[in-house]
Design a protein that fits this description.
Blueprint lengths: L1 H17 L6 H4 L14 H10 L1 E2 L3 E2 L7 E2 L12 E2 L44
Antiparallel strand pairs: 1-4, 2-3
Helix pairs in contact: 1-3
């Protein structure tokens, strides 16, 4: 059942970035960000969001005596973990406490450099 769940989540990610009603990305991003508008996300961005949203699973249910305690992902039993979009896609008024910066389809020419500066608010919070 992992493939149907992943496909459904991929569709939700596409809707999140392409919806222009202001309920999703265009309503929760910082206006100072260049990409703070609805856009059609690339497959690369969708895959990156899915991978980054992986949440560790605790147990592989093997029917009792064959249960396996899972380690921190990624590994061969759980991949990058269970998809949890609430950990990576902020929703205005619903899911907050973090910020999302998106740079999709950035053209980088030969011998070019693209850099980003990140201000860390507190060292005890993950990037």
């Amino acid at each position: 059942m992992a493939s149907p769940a992943a496909a459904g989540n991929a569709a939700l990610i596409r809707q999140y970035f392409s919806d222009s009603s202001g309920r999703f990305w265009s309503g929760s991003c910082k206006p100072a960000y260049r990409s703070c508008r609805s856009f059609n996300p690339t497959g690369y961005l969708i895959k990156a969001v899915i991978i980054h949203s992986g949440v560790q699973m605790a147990l592989f249910n093997g029917g009792g005596e064959y249960d396996i305690q899972l380690k921190k992902p990624p590994d061969f039993m759980q991949g990058f973990g269970r998809i949890g979009l609430q950990t990576v896609l902020p929703l205005k008024g619903v899911i907050s406490g973090f910020d999302l910066f998106v740079a999709d389809a950035v053209n980088i020419g030969e011998n070019s450099v693209v850099g980003y500066i990140v201000d860390v608010a507190a060292e005890n919070r993950p990037l």
